[in-house]
Amino acid sequence: MKYELNKEDASMMREMSQFFPWQRRLLFKLMPENLSQVKDIKKMLSPIAAFCRQERSGIIEYLEDVSKTDEHYFRVYESSDCWAFDNVGVAMASYLPSNSAGMCQGIENGKRNWNAIETKCIGLGDPYCEFKLVPGEIDELRDSLEAVDSTIMESVHDRLMHRLIGFLLDGKPLVDRPSLGSEIQLHAVGHTFSFPYLAGERYQMALRMGGSKVGREVGEHLMEAGLSHDEAVKRVINFLKHCKVGKVTAGETIKIEDNCESFYMKLNTLKPEEACCYFTTGFLNGLFSAVKNQRVREIKCVALGDPYCEWEII
């Protein structure tokens, strides 16, 4: 599902370009209408590669020597999807391959259905990631996407939690890529936050439950490390600030200005009927239940037109 939603989102890039700065709008106007040829893909790649590096999703290059008409290959160094998940057992990239397929589809105005599949991945033990991009179906794509089973997810979860607790307790970097550094890439996370109203109530519930599970586990780790209740909350608030999820303040309530979750929801959907920071609310509930035996309730939300998102502590 995430592959198709990412692809669909990127396929609307031409329509969305009217909201971009004039330089980027001009680039889209100059894009070729057909991307079959190697030379045309190369024209498309330059601004996209610069954007990918700027947002820290990866360092992407076109493999011209092995590419041919309607079969294009790309290499990605330091992929934000896969870095730190070396040898996890499956191809991990969920953003750049599907996003590239969607952009090609959008540039061609939907004339052809493009798809992409990883052929090498850090998650499979390779030193970098590569993917193949073609118009039409890819027979092995479904199996590749469905290879991420519960065992793989547990391994990914454990590695993420290890890094997060290392940051909270010892100040270790969450991620440390040789060229792209330690900044967190949130674009793909924004896609995840944009999809609840497209995917339905079950997806909304999954975000809440996932957030609650992680928040509770983080709180339990911090309590086991001997931190006081207030210090544990303070460190998590500092973690949120470090990740630039928004401008976070904590007092009698918790406020987040420019909250990335509600921002993406507001950007990609019609005005919702309820506060919609599903993951953040779940995470804070799990954290406060583990640390202070309390709960939170979202009382303001940017997606509803409020100036910031706010949670009261119950």
What report would you give on this structure?
The chain has 314 residues and is α+β, with helices and mostly antiparallel strands. It folds into two domains: 2-145, 2-Layer Sandwich (Muramoyl-pentapeptide Carboxypeptidase, domain 2); 186-313, Trafficking protein particle complex subunit 3 (Muramoyl-pentapeptide Carboxypeptidase, domain 2, 2-Layer Sandwich), CATH 3.30.1380. Helix content is 48%, strand content 14%. It contains 13 helices and eight strands. Strand 7 (296-300) and strand 8 (309-313) form a beta hairpin. The mean pLDDT is 88.
Write the layout of secondary structure elements.
Blueprint (H helix, E strand, L loop, with lengths): L1 H10 L1 H4 L5 H8 L8 H18 L3 E4 L9 E6 L18 H12 L6 E7 L8 E7 L5 H5 L4 H21 L16 H8 L1 H4 L1 H24 L4 H14 L4 E4 L2 E5 L2 H9 L9 H14 L4 E5 L8 E5 L1
Antiparallel strand pairs: 1-2, 2-4, 3-4, 5-6, 6-8, 7-8
Per CATH, the architecture of the largest domain is: 2-Layer Sandwich
Number of domains: 2
Main sheet specs: 4 strands, antiparallel
Average pLDDT for all residues: 88
Shape, per Cα inertia axes: globular
Structural class of the helix and strand makeup? alpha+beta
| Amount of beta strand | 5-15%
Report how far the terminal alpha carbons are from each other.
36 Å
What is the number of beta strands? Answer: 8
Provide the spatial order of strands within the biggest beta sheet. Answer: 1-2-4-3
* Assembly state (oligomeric): single chain
Low-confidence parts, pLDDT < 50 over ≥5 residues?
none
User: What is the H/E order?
Assistant: HHHHEEHEEHHHHHHEEHHEE
Reported by name, the CATH topology of the largest domain is Muramoyl-pentapeptide Carboxypeptidase, domain 2
> How many DSSP H or I helices?
13
By CATH reckoning, the class of the largest domain would read Alpha Beta
What is the helical fraction, as a range of percent? 40-55%
